[in-house]
Amino acid sequence: MQVEESDGLPIVAPGLVDLQINGYAGLDFNQLPLQAETVSQIIRKLWREGVTSSYPTVITNTPDAIASALGSIASACEADPATEQGIAGIHLEGPFISPDDGARGAHRLDDVRPPDWDLFCRWQEAAGGRIKIVTLSPEWPDSAAFIKRCVDSGVIVSIGHTAADASQIGEAVAAGARMSTHLGNGAHLMLPRHPNYLWEQLAQDDLWSCVIADGFHLPDQVLKVVLKVKGEQALLVSDAVAISGLEPGVYKTHIGGDVVLTSEGKLHLAADPRLLAGSAQMLLWGIAHLSRRGIAAFPSVWEMASTRPARLMGLPIAEGLSVGAPADFVLLDRVQADGRIPLRQTYKAGRLVYDEGSEI
């Protein structure tokens, strides 16, 4: 992506691809019972954030609850062509993750379990084959065999919420794991200097690294190191929860209880401001943060959230603005002094779906 100077004309850029999003504007993919209409509403609301393709993320829960959420997303796709176009796949984050405190993050311990192929197939059937990413920890016995079966079925396996050692991570990559879920988060507060699972994932040449760049989850130094080490394999995700897109204030959530969204954009537990309660910022915010802080140039950062994730997932929009590529693009202005990126319009498959100056 190249950015040319213009006399007030907007920048044309590929539509954003969010590999990990839990909800938006008060609506949650994990709030049960999930209505198909809710799914469609989220996808449409994401257009105002420039997101033209997304992977709704279903997190650790009971087997029946996961099946229910997946079935609702599938029903929404089957009932609404725009939703079907906007959902490039489903990201299943858990329940095959580490049971350790810290590494497990906010996922409920009682629902964490070892990889189970028959159970995964049941969920894939409920999803209508739409599960395209599964986040797991390879610390479980026989993880490599499970990973290989996922890969053979066309599912990207991502390492996350893990306490795996170097050999287990190496075996996972050899079996076909290709991504790291929000690297540096969902981790223990204390780690050995070396070796540890962060260094090991960074060192694995075949792993693409996803990061949350909201300015709260990772310090700038860590973001800079990940981008330097991974280069074209560095990806940006929002991992946004349902409170994203809402006004600052105190909210009650079904996962973290009472939480506070500050005027600075930080989401933390009401009981302890030091503890994050998830991400409340979208990809545009992360792009602005990385470029404004000088961690990477704007064109490169935009690619981290658009054509690069599309390339990993094998989406045709990986071609960006090339002739013959799907017409998923946005019109936007440069990063403003206050950190905002004004979005003028969003186009999905050549159709205008968002315009800042009108209701569509």
Keyphrases for this structure?
360 residues, alpha/beta, 8-stranded parallel beta sheet, 4-stranded antiparallel beta sheet
What this model shows, in words?
The chain is α/β, with parallel strands linked by helices. The protein is built from eleven helices and 18 strands. The strands form four sheets. Strands 2-5-6-7-8-9-10-11 form an eight-stranded parallel sheet. It has a four-stranded antiparallel sheet with strand order 1-16-17-18, with no helix packed on it. It has a four-stranded antiparallel sheet with strand order 12-13-14-15, with no helix packed on it. Helix 8 links the parallel strand 10 and strand 11. Helix 1 packs across helix 2, helix 2 packs parallel to helix 4 and helix 5 runs parallel beside helix 6. The longest helix is centred in the first third of the chain and has 17 residues.
